[in-house]
Amino acid sequence: MTAPPLILGATIRFLRAHEPFARMARSDLEFLAGRARLAYFAAGSVVVDAASGAECPLHVIQRGHVRTVDPAAPGSSTVLGPGECFPLASGGHDDRREGSYLATEDVFCYQVAPADCAKLRESSAAFAEFYAQSLRTLHSQSHGQVGRHFSQRAVDQQTLLQPVRALVRRAPVSCAADTPLRAALERMSAERVRTIAVVDAEQRPIGIFTLTDLLERVVLPGIDLATPVAEVMTRGPGAVDEEATAQEALAAMAANRYHQLVITRAGRLHGVVSERDLFALQRVSMRNVIETIRGARDVAGLKRAAGDITTLADNLLAQGAAAEALTHTIAALNDVLTLRLFDLLAPAHDLAGVEWCWLSLGSEGRREQTTATDQDNALLFAAAAPEREARRAALLKFGHAVNEALATLGFPLCPGNIMAGNPAHCLSVDEWRGRFGSWLREPAPEALLAANIFFDFRALAGHAALAEGLRRWLAEVAPESRLFLRLLAANALQAEPPLGVVRTFVTDDGIYHGTIDLKSDGARIFVDAARALALAFGIAETGTAARLRLAGRRLALEERATSAFVDAFHFLQLLRLRAQRGQLGGEGGAPQHAAPNRIDPYALNELDQRMLKEALRQARALQKLLEQTLAR
């Protein structure tokens, strides 16, 4: 029954006085006012009961006040007044709650059914933004809950999520490239620093010079102190922007074996931080892990370091490290481990004069490794036809030795044999181009399966220019392979987010009864969609979040929509890490050793259930976008 015009008008006037309704179009407000039901709650009554399994509409307070009650956080109640929405100001996008809502006095609320809220999200950008922002709020709250759960393990550790600029303690000491060594050293002595940054005329860092460089590059070779510092400095210093997190700086330092990082502001020198500055943030010491890796004399020594990486991951998770930074850190440390393994094994193999590049594939290539991962790698080399087979034979022996050693270190051999020690995946530049070209031209099921792994390659060691050239070539030819892209998109649409109609989640039967797979039914959807979009737009990035952000710009998506996709993906990754490390408490799910990515969603706490549902809804929305963009 349609409400009388007088009542509709009064309702619209009330809504217009509050956010997000003040920014909504008249037609959307008319729809909302026509569908809303005014409900009365007596003082002291329960407006929303957390223990109830009933579907929950969005409530907009018209008169009176409502107090939130969260049994998990006594004393943290909040009072909501006219114009405010609940539960969790969610826009009615879920029917599960982490607390109850009590009327502190006689209360009138407009109630809007979840189905009507869903329609409003499609028609109103303002309401959709309200919805997307609440997704981020939920993500933050869930993250905070993880931190509280493990606070006893991390109480004495400072956060790694602060901007790295917070670690800059003093103005940087710098000099021009033509400064004589004597003058540079006098400046370092006067300022009592061990490092001086070398800058150009615009104050952009072009190198650094340290006391270690003084010994190795000046004193021992007997270099004249009148020599310009540019001739002995380290060129292309490691640099990060001042807004990067300390966690990201740590990952960069670990991946590239830096001892100092230059901090920039708008590309210009802002400061210098050292290993000591960054490692001081941790008692679980990433420094100790790296020192153990670099000091290992054999595979047995590296095995101890591999165990330290998982321990560090546990503690970073307990600190509240973001999923993106955490998976990047795991990948960076695994890279350092693998590079040290190369150092130990390479002398036994005749690789002199061979231009080769070790390729990380799959999650390794995307830098999205969790703690439960097997090997996916390959070799790329340069060789003319006459010498190709001889070089392949030498590299295969090396690849096989590395694969076996990595298995000893806790990285299982790939069940599909996608490894560098396999002749099918140890190819020259021309052979790799031919392989990728055949997949693009003839998109058989094998090609689509390969796309899930091989198209995410990145250089780990050796001649990175070989991989960079292959990536540039692929970025040029892939966008023209229309049939391949359509089939790749269709393949990405096959995964069905486990969202129910009657119940919130659809769980599996059989041996994994009552669980869902966070990887294949959740994170994989974002990974596959991002890959397809990246290939279609010639995007060279391999990381899922970076691909989504860049694809969002190409598609002219609003930033809030892209951010919602990225946040949802990161939440699923975080939940996977917690499940793999046994950090979901007694919340159920399949045993870690049997199915590390499976959980019982109904055993999660209320907030995580809510966030999981929203993340899966974002997966469905991304699939719809992919279908509109590529699958038609």
Give the helix level as a range of percent.
40-55%
Rg calculated over all Cα atoms: 28 Å
Number of helices in the DSSP assignment: 22
Query: What is the end-to-end distance?
Result: 40 Å
**Largest beta-sheet characterization:** 4 strands, antiparallel
* Strand order in the sheet with the most strands: 1-8-3-6
Structural classification: alpha+beta
Mean pLDDT: 84
Total number of β-strand segments? 21
Strand content: 5-15%
The low-confidence parts are 89-97, 146-158, 585-593
Q: Estimate the global geometry from the Cα principal axes.
A: globular
Task: Give a written overview of the molecule.
By secondary structure, the chain is α+β, with helices and mostly antiparallel strands. Helix content is 48%, strand content 14%. It is built from 22 helices and 21 strands. A four-stranded antiparallel β-sheet has the order 1-8-3-6. It has a four-stranded antiparallel β-sheet with strand order 2-7-4-5, with no helix packed on it. Strands 9-10-11-12 form a four-stranded mixed β-sheet. β17, α14 and β18 (426-428) form a beta-alpha-beta unit. The model is unreliable at 89-97, 146-158 and 585-593 (pLDDT under 50).
What layout of secondary structure does this protein have?
Elements: H1 5-16, H2 26-35, E1 37-41, E2 46-48, E3 58-63, E4 66-69, E5 79-80, E6 85-86, E7 100-103, E8 107-112, H3 114-123, H4 125-149, H5 151-154, E9 174-176, H6 181-191, E10 195-199, E11 205-210, H7 211-219, E12 234-235, E13 239-241, H8 246-256, E14 260-265, E15 268-274, H9 275-279, H10 286-295, H11 299-319, H12 323-345, E16 355-360, H13 362-366, E17 377-382, H14 385-408, E18 426-428, H15 429-441, H16 445-451, E19 458-462, H17 464-477, H18 482-492, E20 516-517, H19 519-537, H20 544-554, H21 559-580, E21 598-599, H22 606-629
Parallel strand pairs: 9-10, 13-14, 17-18
Antiparallel strand pairs: 1-8, 2-7, 3-6, 3-8, 4-5, 4-7, 10-11, 11-12, 14-15, 16-17, 16-19, 20-21
